[in-house]
Design brief:
- With about 525 residues, this protein is an alpha/beta fold.
- It has three domains: about 20-210 and about 260-365, Alkaline Phosphatase, subunit A (3-Layer(aba) Sandwich), CATH 3.40.720; about 375-445, 2-Layer Sandwich (Arylsulfatase, C-terminal domain); about 450-525.
- Helices cover about 40% and strands about 10% of the residues.
- The chain is built from 15 helices and 14 strands.
- The chain has helices spanning about 1-20, 55-60, 75-85, 100-105, 115-120, 175-190, 210-220, 240-245, 250-270, 305-310, 335-340, 360-365, 425-445, 450-480, 485-510, and strands spanning about 20-30, 65, 70, 125-130, 145, 195-200, 280-285, 310-315, 325, 330, 375-380, 390-395, 395-400, 405-410.
- The strands form three sheets. It has an eight-stranded mixed β-sheet with strand order 5-4-6-1-7-8-2-9, sandwiched between helices.
- Helix 2 (about 55-60) crosses helix 9, helix 7 (about 210-220) crosses helix 9 and helix 14 (about 450-480) runs antiparallel to helix 15.
- The model is unreliable at about 5-15 (pLDDT under 50).
């Protein structure tokens, strides 16, 4: 009889494990909060595009949930991607800016999403396709059994030789990445394994690219609030720079092409009959930078709402259908959320700062998310621009300039445009929030803007500038011999050198605001 009950227990456990949900995370590069055809806030015409068309995202949210107040961990890619994988803030991971050197020297991650899923159920198989861009850990070391490697931005524009542009049949690898994702899903479904796949598109990051036929579609559409006169010029009058960086027709087409591929993914999930056991999550690594972000202020590269508030759309077995949630969430919530939904019972490491969104999925609003870190901390000590930190606590947000120490306060529940600085009206709230922010950054031993600037200056003066001078000299010799390609490269390099000199001068002046003397670096500018 004891043997019978033991076998029954094993059978029941196996049945429970077999029902572990699947997770599909579609992670877009640089898509803005208002860059889809879905209202991020119900009835708010400034939270939706009147030009971009994303019908398959509309299809997703018809059966799922729209989060109006979702945040990326950083206004740039690498810190956000690292944070998402580990469930920790960029500040705690020592990776708050694009330069990841400190995080490589001192890897602070304690658990990743694939590792957490294995902890919940050893049967989980994880895959990552597309842009990785987390130099502190490889996809394999992070626990992904299937991966196309520790890729960066370049793979989104070139073949593996990094010289040959991608074929017109696969702009930004959108088609091939979707093919890989579908193949993985089919394989794991056939094997009866629960899975997690993160599809990290290179779109919609520059350089922009799209299918010609999709561009033709958007040339016939008007774009009242986003277009410039050059957008509707004939193709032969669109410069290469415009095509790659700011042609609204190309950008709209790229978004549309990405949405079509997303539709293929949904089709396959439906075809396999696993939609009722699969969570599909769509979001972005940071705010957008193409023309505007609706009513939000700012864009990619700063901690204003436009830089960090992003689309966050979810469909799945425990998710309410066709509803909005105003509960604030941030990407470091994804790890504990997936762990919980996968059946994880043991406590996660205390370093994991996010909280599970399970109850939000089930109830949408009026739900409290329990987190190890109560408020949202953003730290962006940007060494060649405006260094900032920010804290969101409920409806209030402080934004602190790390050079001037100016602190602004906004009620983002009514002022997402951050036009009304109410710091003078609520000095005690500013003081309390500033104390919480400063103490957290100190406890976390977060990166310091002065240290980052010194490293930036050393890299520039000891490596980049000497190498550029060498290349300038080499191309000048070829240019003087009549080589037209060398002349073009020479002019580019001279412009690049001028930019670096400006960066050095700017950084020396900013260092003075912290009582630091960087004048030694000025020698190379003489």
């Amino acid at each position: 009889m004891k043997r019978f009950y033991a076998l029954l227990l094993v059978f029941i456990s196996a049945q429970v494990l077999a029902k572990s949900p699947n997770f599909v995370l579609v992670y877009i590069d640089d898509i803005g909060w208002a860059d889809t055809s879905i209202e991020m806030v119900p009835g708010d015409s400034e939270s939706v595009s009147d030009f971009y068309q994303t019908p398959h995202l509309e299809r997703l949210v018809k059966d799922g949930m729209i989060f109006s107040n979702a945040y990326a961990p950083s206004p740039v890619c690498t810190p956000s991607r690292n944070s998402l994988q580990h469930g920790m803030t960029p500040a705690r991971l020592l990776n708050s800016v694009l330069y990841p050197g400190n995080a490589i020297k001192e890897y602070r991650g304690v658990i990743t999403i694939p590792q957490a899923l294995k902890k919940a159920n050893p049967e989980y198989i994880s895959a990552h396709f597309g842009k990785w861009h987390v130099p502190s850990v490889t996809p394999t070391k992070a626990g992904y059994e299937v991966t196309d490697g520790p890729t960066g931005n370049g793979e989104g524009d070139y073949e593996d030789d990094f010289r040959t542009p991608l074929p017109e049949s696969d702009p930004k690898r959108m088609v091939s990445l979707t093919d890989k994702t579908i193949d993985f899903i089919e394989t794991q479904n056939k094997a009866g394994k629960p899975f997690f796949v993160q599809l990290s598109h290179y779109a919609v990051h520059i350089w922009h690219d799209s299918f010609k036929e999709t561009r033709e579609k958007y040339k016939k559409l008007s774009c009242s609030n986003r277009s410039d006169k050059h957008d509707y010029k004939p193709d032969d009058q669109i410069t290469e720079s415009q095509y790659k960086h700011n042609w609204i027709i190309n950008y709209a087409a790229m978004l549309d092409d990405m949405d079509v591929q997303f539709g293929r993914l949904l089709d396959k999930i439906d075809e396999l009959g696993i939609a009722d056991n699969t969570y599909v999550i769509f979001t972005s690594d940071n705010g957008g930078g193409m023309r505007n972000n609706g009513r939000l202020s700012g864009a990619k590269g700063d901690l204003t709402e436009g830089g960090i508030r992003v689309p966050f759309l979810v469909r799945g077995p425990e998710v309410q259908k066709g509803v909005y949630s105003n509960v604030a969430t941030v990407h470091w919530d994804l790890l504990p959320t997936m762990y919980d939904l996968a059946g994880g019972k043991e406590e996660l490491p205390v370093e994991v700062e996010g909280g599970t969104l399970r109850n939000v999925f089930a109830e949408a609003n009026d739900v409290t998310v329990e987190r190890n870190l109560r408020d949202f901390v953003f730290h962006f000590p940007w060494y060649n621009g405006e260094p900032e930190s920010a804290l969101i606590a409920g409806k209030y947000k402080i934004l602190k300039n790390l050079d001037t120490n100016e602190v602004q306060l906004f009620d983002i529940s009514v002022d997402a445009a951050e036009k009304n600085n109410i710091a003078d009206e609520m000095p005690q709230r500013v003081a309390d929030m500033s104390k919480f922010l400063d103490e957290y950054l100190m406890r976390s031993k977060a990166e310091n803007v002065t240290d980052l600037r010194r490293g930036y200056m050393e890299r520039m003066t000891q490596n980049w500038l000497p190498n550029t001078d060498k290349q300038i000299a080499e191309n000048k010799v070829k240019m003087d011999q009549g080589d037209e390609l060398a002349k073009k490269e020479y002019e580019r390099l001279v412009g690049y050198r001028k930019w670096m000199i400006g960066e050095i001068q700017f950084t020396v002046e900013r260092a003075k605001m912290h009582g630091e003397d960087f004048s030694e670096f000025l020698d190379v500018t003489k």
